[in-house]
Specification:
Blueprint: E1 27-31, H1 36-43, E2 47-49, E3 57-59, H2 62-67, E4 79-80, H3 87-90, H4 92-108, E5 123-126, H5 130-139, E6 146-150, E7 160-162, H6 169-177, E8 184-188, E9 201-212, E10 215-227, H7 240-243, H8 247-250, E11 263-265, H9 266-276, H10 279-300, E12 312-320, E13 326-332, H11 342-359, E14 371-372, E15 375-380, E16 382-383, E17 385-389, E18 397-401
Parallel strand pairs: 1-2, 1-3, 3-4
Antiparallel strand pairs: 5-8, 6-7, 6-8, 9-10, 9-12, 10-11, 10-15, 12-13, 14-15, 15-16, 17-18
Helix pairs in contact: 1-11
The chain binds adenosine-5'-diphosphate.
Amino acid sequence: SDLPSNRRDRSLPPLPFRNQISSSTRILFKCTLSNTILDVLSRRVGWEQTTGEEWHFHWATREWMSTSFDRYKFTSRQLVNHFRNDFELTRKDNLVKNYKKMRRALEKNKSKELSKYSFIPASYVLPSEYHIFVEEFKKYPDNTIWIMKPVAGAQGRGIFLFRRLKHIQEWKKKDVTGCDAQPYVVQSYVARPYLIGGKKFDVRIYVLVTSFRPLTAWVHREGFARFSHSRYSTESVEDAFVHLTNVAIAKTAPDYDPEKGLKWSLNRLIRFYESTFSKQRVQDMITDLSNLIVNSLRCVESLIIQDSHCFELYGYDVLFDEDLKPWLLEVNASPSLTASSQDDYRLKYRVLSHMLDILDLEGKREGTEHHVGGFDLLINKGVIVERTRGPDPHNCFVPSVNLRLGEYHESKSK
Ligand code: ADP
């Protein structure tokens, strides 16, 4: 659960626009969660919680989206935190299907864009693609590792790795009897991840989508890397503490120590990369990451039901391999907003506050900003390009993507 109130930081950053909101401004919000989001909403000047049907802002559950969204009569100034069919992006099987559909369309048109769509490891949806998978499986070298993931799973639950087809017999048996067969995604395992201190990690990045048509997305500069509990090795594929980076998994280790720091801030990770690789290599990695985000959204751009009352804060999970190539593992529709430490609480608080600044129910923004708090505008119809100072003295400015991962400094912000 969330931090008890007496452990919360009393010196949280001042709320924005404190002096600019008139005393008569009243923004009504609805929120059934009791974690960081409720704190952010409750502390925002001029905002008031309601349990009624009249609200401006609703931090809704998925259940509300499927039972009530379609029946709800929206007025112009209302926002809700999901798109109606966001599962096209956030369910593991749909992501794979839509990604493959995009690849097929680009292949058919012999489009050069195809090369940009290689950010998800080879994946098959089971049981429907079982036979295709078996054919493909035979083409891979004997010791290839595969990972099985329940399509609607979270926190590492139900995931296992295997090398031989017989290891998925248990799952198949259930499928044949038809009773509690669970749909899975089987995916080629990224067996050579980039390691730090001998451990594997993946990275959580916050992406705010305010519209799918036109595609408008912001990326927050803060995020974190989550490390596995045990040192990496491919000898044993059974050990979840080695192969999975979920905090929920690490917590079950008998020698788990919450203070031992299985998390790094994005800032620390980027500084580490900068001390290990050239500036250009790190910039290339950031460009690859921005392509991954933009193109994953492109895969569902035409499928998502666009509605001006909807926005969504996605949690992207990305794994870097030893060549620093980013691989998309999953997109979360409800990234955890429960804090695991004081630092984690502050980070999530900032991300959510800046999100509200962008959504701007207070009507304070100009609307042309490319940076708001820790968020940078990545795409607004087209990808936003910045001119940054390059290494060549004769050609001072080079174009680069508008993404400054790890560069948020609280003191410099308002
Ligand atoms: P969940 O929704 O249960 O967290 P994920 O897809 O995020 O499922 O996977 C959980 C963990 O498994 C990740 O944090 C990552 O460490 C590992 N993992 C998942 N897919 C792969 C893959 N293809 N290659 C390597 N590791 C993977």
